[in-house]
TrEMBL record:
It comes from the Bacteria. Residues 230-328 form the HTH araC/xylS-type domain. PROSITE patterns: HTH_ARAC_FAMILY_2. One of its GO terms (molecular function) is sequence-specific DNA binding. The keyword Ubl conjugation does not apply. It comes from Hydrocarboniclastica marina. Keywords: Transcription, Transcription regulation. PANTHER family: ARAC-FAMILY TRANSCRIPTIONAL REGULATOR, HTH-TYPE TRANSCRIPTIONAL REGULATOR RV1931C. This is Helix-turn-helix domain-containing protein.
Length: 335
């Protein structure tokens, strides 16, 4: 019988609790699914702290570390995950921890991070020359490590094939992206069918590609209260059936098209056309996830018109086709 893979998670004061329990629940649910099939567990979970005992999270609740990381048998670890949270800032100033991470890297098959835990990997030098991501609000700090290749719009950088990421050292974006990362690890270990069953139990999408955007298009812009775009940004999602050309948008806010384009780039970070496409894709996603319409209807209702237009927009924004996106939900519902 193959022994379970040991999944170790570092915990420290002011750790983000969901960064810890979200991914670990994925592995635990994989064990539950295997048990339902009469199979042995694939994973053993372990929390490592400065010392055995309770660790206070940023949510105020406590987690219990099973062992001390500094004296732990690192050869027993299959996968070590580093979560994020406010406590990362003090932990990355710890030479003893950074040296331990460098030692772990040489013996552990998989070493990854969730959210701002990437800053621990960067401080240890283990992300030098590697593709990495983190929560969007801390990407500037990650980019301060000159040798790190920061990917600003990715959910995670794990790839078991080493073609679009890394199978050995990898990172993930904010909070729930750690669940996506854990599902990708389960899929690599146990196959897509098992990972799909886990995703269904957790009521999550299996699996958002690692190179998918971190943002929801409808929630992304946070413009200043004084921005002349505020009313327009609220109007666009409710009017997707309209052409929404640059000229139409400019006329609605009584601006010259060139002026509107400049304001969009300044306040939203996107051109008007790029932003409208993102909102249309977001609307199509919601329609497909509901399972009530097909690709052709989703294309029409989102204002993209033709299924091929929707397919190209999905590939640009989400790196997946609308049909594959819809199929994942259909498959999950039928499991």
């Amino acid at each position: 019988m193959t022994p379970p893979r040991q999944i170790a998670m570092l915990v420290f004061p002011e750790v983000m609790s969901l960064d810890v329990v979200g991914p670990l629940q994925v592995f635990s649910s994989a064990n539950d699914e295997l048990d339902r099939r009469g199979l042995s567990p694939a994973y053993r979970l372990c929390l490592l702290g400065d010392a055995p005992g309770p660790v206070r999270t940023s949510a105020g609740i406590q987690l219990c570390a099973e062992a001390c990381w500094s004296g732990y048998d690192v050869a027993a670890i299959d996968t070590l995950l580093l979560p994020g949270g406010a406590g990362v800032d003090s932990m990355r100033q710890r030479p003893d921890l950074l040296e331990w991470l460098r030692r772990v890297e040489s013996t552990t098959p998989r070493l990854g991070s969730v959210c701002s835990g990437a800053l621990l990997l960067a401080a240890s030098g283990l992300l030098d020359g590697r593709l990495a991501t983190t929560h969007w609000s801390r990407q500037g700090e990650l980019a301060a490590f000159a040798e790190v290749r920061v990917a600003t719009n990715r959910l995670h950088t794990y790839d078991p094939t080493d073609l679009d990421g890394d199978s050995h050292i990898f990172t993930s974006a904010g909070v729930t992206a750690g669940i996506d990362l854990a599902l990708a690890l389960v899929e690599a270990d146990l196959g897509q069918a098992l990972a799909l069953a886990v995703a269904r139990q957790l009521v999550v999408f299996l699996r958002r590609p690692g190179n998918q955007d971190q943002f929801s298009a409808c929630l992304m812009p946070e413009v200043a209260p004084t921005s002349r775009l505020r009313d327009l940004l609220e109007w666009i999602p409710a009017n997707l059936a309209k052409p929404l050309s640059l000229e139409m948008l400019a006329e609605r806010v009584h601006m010259a098209p060139r002026t509107l384009s400049r304001l969009f780039v300044r306040d939203v970070g996107l051109t008007p056309a790029r932003y409208v496409e993102r909102v249309r894709v977001e609307a199509a996603r919601a329609l497909l996830e509901g399972g009530q319409v097909g690709v052709a209807t989703a294309a029409k209702l989102s204002g993209l018109g033709h299924p091929e237009t929707l397919r190209r927009a999905f590939q640009r924004q989400l790196s997946v086709s609308p049909a594959d996106y819809a199929q994942r939900f259909t498959a999950a519902a039928g499991q």
